[in-house]
Amino acid sequence: MMRFIAPVGSSIAALGAVAALTPAAALGRPTPAVSSHRVSLSGEIETLSSTGTIGVAGVKDTDAGILDGTVSGSPRWSGALRQVVTWGPELSIRARGTAFDAGGTLRFTLVGKFAARSTGGLALTGTLTVTGGTGSYRHAHGSLRVTGVASLAAGSTKSTFDLSGALRYPKSHG
């Protein structure tokens, strides 16, 4: 009885070639060209509900707000967002959410940190990572810089923020 044993390297290469096929390519359809899109958005957000005192480690809050600005290759971006924030130590945050406009949705995660500002309020710096989308933003991915200011006024849970950077996704054909 003869057995054929393929060299390990060729087996791995064959598996890699199969894994590299996208579903579209596997079905004989062309893979859409992915483009880079510059993002410059500004927004306002308010806390809708919270499990405790905002800023205390372990507390979760649900926020919603508006976004306006530009994403290259698109008409003016005018939409909204919703996120659930989990507060960590020393005013750090982690959030998951969805932003949307008439063209579709963007799913994101956010990691950031607040720090006291000499002019009042809290400054936010962080990174928003887009992990997918729908509609015109299908297969979107990339990271955006987040800067913002949270009010410390009594009774206010309002924050303003800016998002800047680039996202990659196929050009819309619709």
In short:
It contains two helices and eight strands, in the order H-H-E-E-E-E-E-E-E-E.
Low-confidence stretches: 1-23
How many structural units, i.e. domains? 1
Rounded Rg: 21 Å
Question: Order of helices and strands, N to C?
Answer: HHEEEEEEEE
Number of β-strand runs: 8
Q: Give the assembly state of these chains.
A: single chain
Class by SSE composition: mainly beta
**How does the overall form come out from the CA principal axes?**
elongated
Report the top-level CATH class.
Mainly Beta
Describe the fold and architecture.
It contains two helices and eight strands, in the order H-H-E-E-E-E-E-E-E-E. With 174 residues, the chain is mostly beta strands. It has a single domain (31-170), classed as Porin, CATH 2.40.160. It has an eight-stranded antiparallel barrel. Strand 2 and strand 3 form a beta hairpin.
Helix and strand arrangement:
Blueprint: H1 8-20, H2 23-26, E1 34-50, E2 60-71, E3 77-87, E4 92-101, E5 104-116, E6 122-133, E7 142-150, E8 159-170
Antiparallel strand pairs: 1-2, 1-8, 2-3, 3-4, 4-5, 5-6, 6-7, 7-8
Main features:
disordered N terminus; 2 helices; 8-stranded antiparallel beta barrel; Porin; 174 residues; mainly beta
